[in-house]
Amino acid sequence: MAQLLAIIGGTGLTSLETLSISHREMVSTPYGEPSGPLTHGELGGKAVVFLARHGYGHTIPPHKVNYRANLWALQHIGVDQVIAVAAVGGIRADMEPGCLVFPDQIIDYTWSRGHTFFEDDLTHVTHIDFTYPYCEELRQKLIQAARHAGLDAREGGTYGTMQGPRLETAAEIMRLERDGCDMVGMTGMPEAALARELDLRYAACAVVANWAAGKSGGKITMEDIQHQLTGGMEKVEILLREVVALL
Ligand code: HPA
């Protein structure tokens, strides 16, 4: 089967300006409904499928996203690699709002999310290897694309995934920092693990929307986040155009 790339868009990326859309496809899954129809189109001359993680009207909060249905649906239609775009808060000193990050590790602090395909009707118990949660080959392509395009990007870091939807306390961010987290978001898991369970090549592009709680002194407002994301997503569109050419 031909290679097919999916892009999962997060907060601030419910559509891709540069995608010329051919059609939308509804997929039913054994896990329920995905976040919306899959949007098929072309980006830089290559077939791409787009899915808005929080729904096209941005109505599904991080803990209510049906991650299993989303990934199952993508694999069902022939997707074999996924680039996940997600907004994060910056913890490490060089993760300032507006920059892109290609994380290489994850710590999962979420709970009660449908987090595995391996739980019912098993013939044997399965434990996937998740030492390196992202596909390194795809991650390197993102890094290469960012360098080509001259985009301000951090080439590694640990993504702490919190339950949300509230933002964190300053003490929680200090704890995440002690744990080794460089950025904090709400959707990195179980998405990455489910992709691995399905053997999909999966890498993430995080967009730093704000300083994490307690890192800038002030309150975090949705207006500030939105403002940073607008600029950040313009960079993401440039990055995606570059990366499809490399795949
Ligand atoms: N915390 C968690 N998730 C986020 C943040 C944050 O500060 N910013 C954007 N997504």
Describe the structure in your own words.
The chain contains five helices and eleven strands. Helices cover 27% and strands 24% of the residues. With 247 residues, it is an alpha/beta fold. The protein has one domain: Rossmann fold (3-Layer(aba) Sandwich). Strands 1, 2, 3, 4, 5, 6, 7, 8, 9, 10 and 11 form an eleven-stranded mixed beta sheet that branches. It starts with a strand and ends with a helix. A hairpin with a 2-residue loop joins strand 3 and strand 4. It binds hypoxanthine. Hypoxanthine binds next to strand 5, strand 10 and strand 11.
Q: So what's the overall shape?
A: globular
- Rg value: 17 Å
Looking at the structure, the CATH topology is Rossmann fold
Number of domains: 1
Name the CATH homologous superfamily.
Answer: Nucleoside phosphorylase domain
**β-strand amount:** 15-25%
Q: What is the string of SSEs from the N terminus onward?
A: EEEEHEEEHEEHEHEH
Q: Count the beta strands.
A: 11
Largest sheet: 11 strands, mixed
Q: Give the termini separation.
A: 15 Å
- Share of helical residues: 25-40%
Number of helices: 5
- Overall CATH class: Alpha Beta
**Bound compounds:** hypoxanthine
The secondary structure category is alpha/beta
Q: Average pLDDT value?
A: 95
Uncertain parts? none
Give short descriptive properties of this protein.
single chain, 247 residues, alpha/beta, Rossmann fold, eleven-stranded mixed beta sheet, 11 strands, binds hypoxanthine
